């Protein structure tokens, strides 16, 4: 239907142009090419946002085959491959993009991010090293922090995380990553602070809430933090706290938390109930 309407609009435009310009076909064709370019750009935007990822890959594959020198279409193909869960192929396309005329530092950042998705940390580091230090962006420093994390270069990671946080108005995700980094290196108190700060920007993120509970449990603080949560989330967080307490050797506290999780959950909480049964069976044995 969309193509029918668009074709009718093109036909109407062509007739109007022909009436105004007589037999000047070159100008008519130029005008039609301009309209086609606008429509193609809109379709590309749709494919990158609301289109099915696999359909988008097919669309951009056809388009890049027809117009291999169009860097915008190559970018669209790379982004679509990432959305479709194929970062390895996306890396190959982004590598092509950064070698094309018109490539930018942001294209290199996108390549590095895709290399991280493909678990190519050495490649990501090499790509980031080719980006001029004058290119300061949130995405660039977030990736720099993640690469430093992968190398356990904590001082550099902290510096990059701090810079990244200062370059965005929505730092919840990077604060969560930073907190998890702190937790993995044994700084539970520092992690707790970062997870709590992340929730001030995105109070709905359950992963961050769960991470916060784990950071507190690592300090033997098993009461749930004062954050927004649904009844289902409360049950899951009690479950996390209970398992953490048991792992820390606080078995009786952990058992109580697991029982609270079962009692709190609005539906049958199979995992928590099974954990309680296992504890009881262990005692009896």
From TrEMBL:
Keywords for this protein: Signal
Annotated signal peptide: 1-18
Keyword Signal set for record: yes
PROSITE patterns attached to this UniProt entry: PROKAR_LIPOPROTEIN (PS51257)
Superkingdom of the source species: Bacteria
Official protein name in the record: Tetratricopeptide repeat protein
The organism of origin for this protein: Rhodobacter lacus
Upper taxonomic lineage: Bacteria, Pseudomonadati, Pseudomonadota, Alphaproteobacteria, Rhodobacterales
């Amino acid at each position: 239907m969309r193509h029918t309407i668009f074709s009718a609009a093109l036909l109407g435009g062509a007739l109007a142009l022909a009436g105004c310009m007589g037999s000047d076909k070159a100008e008519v064709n130029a005008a039609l090419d301009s309209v086609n370019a606008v429509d193609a750009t809109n379709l590309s935007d749709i494919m990158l946002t609301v289109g099915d990822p696999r359909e988008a890959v097919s669309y951009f594959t056809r388009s890049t085959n027809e117009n291999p020198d169009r860097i915008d279409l190559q970018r669209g193909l790379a982004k679509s491959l990432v959305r479709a869960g194929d970062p390895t192929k996306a890396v190959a396309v982004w590598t092509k993009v950064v070698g094309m005329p018109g490539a930018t530092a942001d294209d290199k950042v996108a390549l590095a991010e895709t290399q991280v998705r493909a678990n190519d940390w050495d490649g990501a580091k090499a790509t980031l090293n080719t980006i001029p230090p004058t290119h300061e962006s949130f995405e660039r420093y977030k990736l720099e922090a993640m690469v430093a994390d992968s190398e356990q270069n904590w001082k550099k990671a902290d510096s990059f995380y701090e810079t990244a946080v200062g370059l965005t108005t929505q730092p919840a995700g990077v604060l969560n990553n930073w907190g998890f980094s702190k937790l993995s290196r044994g700084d539970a108190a520092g992690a707790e602070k970062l997870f709590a700060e992340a929730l001030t920007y995105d109070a709905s993120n359950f992963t961050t809430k769960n991470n916060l509970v784990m950071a507190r449990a690592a300090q033997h603080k098993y009461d749930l933090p004062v954050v927004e949560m649904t009844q289902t989330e409360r049950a899951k967080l009690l479950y996390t706290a209970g398992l953490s307490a048991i792992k820390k050797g606080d078995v009786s506290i952990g058992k109580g938390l697991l029982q609270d999780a079962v009692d709190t959950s609005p539906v049958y909480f199979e995992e928590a109930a099974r954990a309680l049964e296992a504890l009881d069976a262990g005692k009896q044995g």
